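Table 4 source record.
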Amino acid sequence: MLIENGENLRKLLGLAVFVATMSFIFWASGTSIYQIEALASATVATTVFLVAIFLRLIAGASLAFTIRLISVPVGLYVSLFSFIQAAEVGYGFIGSFLAIITAGFLFLSCMNERADGQQFSQNTTACILAILLMLLLPVAIFAFLAQFPVLNLWQPFIFIQVSGSFLALYLLQDSSNTFSEKLVFASAYNVVLQAVMSVMFFIILTGSMSDGSFVLNVAIISFSIIFPLGIYLSTLIYAVSKNSVGDVSKIDIKNWHIVEGYLFFMAMVVAPPSIIEYILGQQG
């Protein structure tokens, strides 16, 4: 017990040191953090902890294991909401990256946790409520505190696109895999696929740069990654509810792949000017 408490205190100290370091750097450099940027980081932490506590109280799931499992995809999920909100108001893009950093440190704090035995009492109601809490809480926070355009989330075309890709990836797998394994695989790599397709559509959109609807169209494209992330998070909770997570390192690999897809999308869409572009601009 003393060893476990010591580990927890050490991890909390590590998180506190990082927060203090980042706060000092922002203060010393005179960089201002907008409220919607801080909101992104707070939303990730709030969502992850509340879902983990809920599953612990209702279904007996390990608190640390749940945090390890969902922190990274929740971070990406919230980051995209932050990106869309920043595009709407014209500032606050740092929040997208603060959400990812927060998720990364939550994952690192619990990265050694494993699913041991029957760590979840199978409860369909708890599973559904946990999924709804995880998916809707960030939407509610941004809607009430940042006036997020919730109605823009309804995009039937993107829903059909994401659903069709998910079904295709599910059917292409070996039938020897379990139902949960196929769901998690299809939903994870659907995120990667949609990230690539989003960049493709973004390249097409660059032809309408002068169009006033450009920012709105970029936001709509971002929804095509939010939707598959929501599916992926749902399949993760479902796998936990069925005690069929299996080798958690495989989930870590999938999380890394969706991060790669996300970073590819962000690098193409919000990449700042390169040093070469800056030099050429100065010369011109």
